[in-house]
Amino acid sequence: MSFSRRNSWTDLQKQSIKNMPEMIESKKRSLLKAISYRVICVISMMVITLLITKNVSQSVYITVVFQTIQTALYYLHERLWAQLPNI
User: Fold this and answer.
1) Is residue 10 pLDDT above 60, yes or no?
2) For a surface tag, which of 14, 50, 58, 66 has the fewest beta carbons within 10 Å of its beta carbon?
């Protein structure tokens, strides 16, 4: 491959990258992702705590507290990553 062909290919790649729409993670999208992920986690946590405690009220309490904290942390994590420059 000649030098000029390489430059042309590189220019073509740069132009393609420039024309790609930038993916921006909105706050609403981050929140919806966090909620949908937490639904899966709530179900699995509920089953696990129920198997361990064999007590529905304890299982519900543990699951609600843990999942609330985890949802908030996940959302904050997503927002912090959204602030970083693209790597």
Assistant:
1) yes
2) 14
